[in-house]
Amino acid sequence: MMTRSVLPILTVVMAIVALWYGGAVLMNKRWTMDQAARAGVELSLAEVVADTLSQDRPKLPAPHQVITELWNTTGAKVLEGRAFSKRSLIFHGWITLSATLLGFAIGTGLGIALAVGIVHNRAMDMSVMPWAIASQTIPILAIAPMIIVVLNSIGVQGLLPKAIISAYLSFFPVVVGMVKGLRSPDAMQLDLMRTYSASGTQVFSMLRLPSSMPYLFTSLKVGMAASLVGAIVGELPTGAIRGLGARLLAGSYYGQTVQIWSALFAAAILAATLVGLIGLIQRITLKRMGMAR
Amino acid sequence: MIWVIFALAFWAGGLALNLWLSNCPWRGTLAVRLAVPAIFGLTILVLWEGLTRGLGVPPVILPPPSAIGVRIAASLPILWGDFVQTFVKGALTGYVMGCGAAVLTAIVIDRSTFLQRGLLPVGNFIAALPIIGTAPILVMWFGFDWQSKAAVVVAMVFFPVLINTVQGLAAASAMQKDLMRTYSASYGQTLAKLRLPAAMPFIFNGLKISTTLALIGAIVAEFFGSPIRGMGFRISTEVGRLSLDMVWAEIAVAALAGSAFYGLVAAVERGVTFWHPSQRG
Questions:
Q1: How far from chain centre, in Å, is Cα B8?
Q2: Is residue A217 a contact partner of residue A178, using CB atoms and an 8 Å limit?
Q3: A239's torsion region: left (phi>0), alpha (psi -120 to 50) or beta?
Q4: CATH architecture of structural domain A89-288
Q5: Which residue in A219, A221, A224, A243 sits closest to A233, CA to CA?
Q6: Are residues B151 and B236 in the same domain?
Q7: Is B35 on the interface with A (CB under 8 A)?
Q8: pLDDT at residue B24 in the model
């Protein structure tokens, strides 16, 4: 399955890169032409293409420009021994990552706790569950700026406000997924536990918790992606100082397109790594539990 | 102090009522199943009102719900203008364009297993990325007005809908496809009469996920620059002026718009996929 897909995936990726280069030439052509007309020179096609792919502030930076910028702000900084300088994406990425992980841990922990409560208490289930489901249909990300500013005005700054946003964004998917998972054992299995005269705790730890694992991991992936988005958006209202979101905003203030794209790619790499990591843990855990498909 | 005592008493009463309702003999009826979450929500509101008033929480930290209600009633024209700018022009346009393009793309690549095998993993990968980060780029390309917001929404909804549609087009069973073959149905007929209807539950799954994404995309894109109206613009400027009742009013509108949008798509789904087991319940 994996090897069969390698060629098609490579083809698609190559096509995207080719489209990207084509788009870069087309979108940056205007600027090159204007400059040439102002200087009063005629440019050959090769010169136009070469110029569109190496502008300082292109409308669409070429892939190699973004990769160069990424390397200059990460690997090159490490080689210089200044991995945590303010111009390094490792520094900004770490700021965002720490808020993401703290918020994710808080949100997941509380989410699992609430899910356990919902499964074991009917009043809680009937009053809270409809709201948890409804929360998935409303853009709760919109209250992020308010949380930052309000917490700032009572003196809480830095990591915690962003972590709170990440936490509540990952909270609801985990609650909904975990409730589904804890309810996934069917009546037959529950009856079997009953015939063993298992106590409530035993049913929970030996049947409900293990069978909820596939659902938990699926919602953990959703929650992790949401946490990262929350941390990035949480960095916007503070005036763009630190973090990947701040790099995006600063880049858009000063028209530094290459910086925006490199921050975007750093965020994408971070998201892919985090979600991939959860996928790996999922595969190992489910395999050891004998639940791998 | 009287406010705090009243709020706590109301909370205790609501809790007792809910505990009783959820264990009473009529707990399965629709009325009770609606009443319990409604009482819970009302209790939260009363608790919020009572505590903010009783403890003297300054309105720049948390305004009481009554103040938010007054603000909503007083600024209906502004809220309506923001709603039109962000939801109707930005989110809805982008949603229709993005979802339409995704379904069409899925149908186009349907005949090529090669393209599917390549596009699906790439699409799955992209769907997990923070696409919202493209907002500053798209605002630069398409200007401050709603066009850039629609573009962000297109980028956000495209891949979830694409993945779900491709999965859905594979949902018709071999037996059903063989039956169409025995009718000597053409590719187009099989697509229109069997495979697209069979794909609808999957497509609507993607469409429902995308309703929230569309609203989030349109609002967050406005944080990167917008004309002087729009829900995201209003939220970010009013937060800066610390008039939080207006921020909460916009959030209430956003929540209402989000659930109504989701409810509408779910209602259409019920009409289109009436045959599916999950709808016959």
A1: 33
A2: no
A3: left
A4: Orthogonal Bundle (1.10)
A5: A243
A6: yes
A7: no
A8: 81
Residue B114 near residue A5, CB atoms below 8 Å: no
Give the separation between CA B109 and CA B119, rounded to whole angstroms: 9
Does some domain include residue B67? Answer: no
Hey, are the CB atoms on A126 and B36 less than 8 Å from each other? yes
Q: How far apart are CA B172 and CA B177, in angstroms?
A: 7
Residue B45 lies in domain: 2-57
Instruction: Indicate whether A95 pLDDT > 90.
Output: no
Residue B113: what residue type?
Answer: T
- A12 and B36 in contact by Cβ < 8 A? no
The tens digit of pLDDT for each residue in A102-123 reads 999 999 999 999 999 998 888 8
Q: What average pLDDT score do residues B176-184 get? A: 92
pLDDT band of residue B184 (cuts 50, 70, 90) is very high
Q: For residue range A47-77, list pLDDT tens digits in order.
A: 778 877 777 778 888 888 888 888 888 777 7
Residues 58-77 of A with CB under 8 A from B: 59
The CATH number that applies at residue B130 is 1.10.3720.10
Nearest Cα residue to A246 out of A86, A81, A70? A86
Q: How many residues does chain A have?
A: 293
**Domain shared by B252 and B115, yes or no:** yes
For residues B27 and B123, membership in a common domain is answered with no
Which 8-state DSSP code applies to residue A27?
Answer: H
Cβ pair B39:A127 closer than 8 A: yes
Mutate to test the interface with A, among B20, B117, B163, B262 (most CBs of A within 10 A): B117
Answer whether residue A236 shows pLDDT above 90.
Answer: no
Which residue of A lies nearest to B14 if distances are taken between CA atoms? Answer: A127
What is the residue extent of each domain of chain A?
2-60, 89-288
Residue B62 lies in a domain: no
Chain A CB contacts of B219 under 8 Å are 139, 141-142
Domain count, chain B: 2
- The SS3 of residue A68 is helix
**Residue of chain B whose alpha carbon sits nearest to that of A4:** B117
Average pLDDT, chain B: 88
Residue type at A246 in one-letter notation: A
Query: ipTM surpassing 0.85, yes or no?
Result: no
